[in-house]
């Protein structure tokens, strides 16, 4: 019997959703193990650094399902945009999870008026000139990474991040219309994040 | 004539230093182009996202000089620890660059008493049981990444991050004793960061 992957994550899309997209896309059997938040303190010590190394896992699975570049230089382009999207995600997540209301309030304007438009304008321009994709002119795991996390980012900022980005909307539509992704998204558990 | 790499960065070690380590280690010719801080506003718009995609470049060069894993699973292990080290770096850099003194002061205790010990204890344990290395039991670009940035992190926190970590000190010594690295470190420009 072949080993079956077990994906351990919170009952959320979060950073696990690009991983789930890749597994469904590649028709790879896996156990979608969702830990209850109250059980996390018990599990956390067993994670090497108290976190799931989600981007490293996403890159690994992208190789398995052949959503990587054709050579090292293409992989550099993919890795660079994934890190960029993850920088944007980090900015949004720090805002969302900030518990000091004064700090949160003071970070709101720079986030919404500077950081988000800065990233989105550039990502939109890349997709426009890049055959509808975030890297190397074809479908790669960078597209899955972005589309997999954008709903969660939207929830965190209480607006649609790509409302003014027709090319990113087109990319999102194309990924969500892939048969395996469409089937997964239709049946996945509902969550805010 | 073969193309020659041009590395564009501030006159700092920073996140470029692991890249410089790899280029020297691989005996790859490159122009170590250091922009003056006052010229950055002119150059920044030409960077796709106003930043240098340093980790993606580091991974790319690691492939060229064969400091990667023997297979995809080993690369996953390397990528995971690099992202972990980069998380720690991000925590330290945000503290260092925080301009609001009240925010900086309130973040000091959690950083020094929780975050840093948490990461360092676990990294030290990994190196101890892992043949003196951060991943896959042999020299990889994860080791270069850590040793390449640790002096800069030390400057940011005004102490030696690995003062209580004999195994990480051993790793640092081994990397700094590689002939190409030793030669580079002896002649590199001096900077705080």
UniProtKB/TrEMBL annotation, chains A, B:
Signal peptide: none annotated. Residues 3-69 form the GST N-terminal domain. Keywords: Transferase. Residues 71-193 form the GST C-terminal domain. GO terms for biological process: glutathione metabolic process. It comes from the Eukaryota. It is an enzyme of class 2 (transferase). Its EC number is 2.5.1.18. It catalyses: RX + glutathione = an S-substituted glutathione + a halide anion + H(+). GO terms for molecular function: glutathione transferase activity. InterPro entries: Glutathione-S-Trfase_C-like, Glutathione-S-Trfase_C_sf, Glutathione_S-Trfase, Glutathione_S-Trfase_N, GST_C, GST_superfamily, Thioredoxin-like_sf. Gene3D superfamilies: 1.20.1050.10, Glutaredoxin. Belongs to the GST superfamily. Sigma family. PANTHER family: GLUTATHIONE S-TRANSFERASE, HEMATOPOIETIC PROSTAGLANDIN D SYNTHASE. Homodimer. This is glutathione transferase. It comes from Pyrocoelia pectoralis.
């Amino acid at each position: 019997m072949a080993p079956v992957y077990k994906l351990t994550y919170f009952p959320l899309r979060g950073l696990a959703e690009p991983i789930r997209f890749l597994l469904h896309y590649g028709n790879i059997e896996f156990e979608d193990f969702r830990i209850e938040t109250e059980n996390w303190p018990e599990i956390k010590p067993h994670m090497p650094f108290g976190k799931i190394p989600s981007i490293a896992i996403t890159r690994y699975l992208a190789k398995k399902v052949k959503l990587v570049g054709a050579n090292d230089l293409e992989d550099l382009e993919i890795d660079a945009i994934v890190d960029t999207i993850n920088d944007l995600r980090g900015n949004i997540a720090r805002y969302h999870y900030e518990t000091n209301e004064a700090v949160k309030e003071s970070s709101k304007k720079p986030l919404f008026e500077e950081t988000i438009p800065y990233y989105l304008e550039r990502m939109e321009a890349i997709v426009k000139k890049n055959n509808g994709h975030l890297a190397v002119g074809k479908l790669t795991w960078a597209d899955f990474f972005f589309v997999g996390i954008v709903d969660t980012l939207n929830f965190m900022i209480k607006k649609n991040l790509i409302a003014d980005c027709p090319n990113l909307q087109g990319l999102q539509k194309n990924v969500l219309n892939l048969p395996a992704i469409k089937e997964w998204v239709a049946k996945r558990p509902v969550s805010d994040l």
